[in-house]
Amino acid sequence: MSAPRVLVVDDERDVRLSFSLYLSRAGFAVEEADSLEAARQAVAARSVDCVLLDLNLPDGNGMDWIHDLRETQPATAILVITGRGDIPLAVEAMRRGADHFLTKPPDMGEVEVFIRKSLELGGKDLIPLEIELGLARDFLAIEQVRFGARLAVHAEGSAESLTCLVPSLLLQPLVENAVTHGIAQTVQGGEVRIESSIRGERLSIVVANPCDEAAPARRRRGFGLDNTRNRLAALYAREAGLQTRKDGERFVVELTLPATRMR
Fold this sequence. Notes:
globular
């Protein structure tokens, strides 16, 4: 079995060398690129499993490549490596399709864990809710850097619900909506709350966020809701659904789907 391929894209030679040495010793096949053009050529020549991408490159912004890379190699994991002052850029990179980001100097052990987790999940349509919930927490942790004390997070599920299988990245558009149409629209911010439970043979997942009383309804609704409804319908037909409601000063999204587990 061939070693997983990792492409390190950074214009700093010492940074590339550090990644190459560590990841090679960890069993990965590492290739380096010092510019966007070199990165594009490397990927065109042979597919890669993971890209470690610096955003500030001599021939352009790595941000511009993320969308194209995601289109041509959807299974490739993208980890953005950026300076501590570039957190807003890293958040934007996540919105464009990057899977995660780390600030320089990155913890090599954390980079290795990210790559291995991405390889483990790669190509899987259904993953345990426990893992999906962890991905949602990771995204919200990044947003907490942006919003600070304005964003609190509660993401928990009952033990029996966490073993259920759900479509990968099912929660991503919902937590993005919760931040964009909830936290960002209220002066004081608030809590994004994710909870899961089992009701009979059904899995229930609830995502709730504060909402602005004065905001028009259209501002509280995002494309993520319709996309999620369509995805559930395609996978489960009438066995799954998405409902929204206003509960006091909170906007609530509830998903219900069959409580299936790995055999």
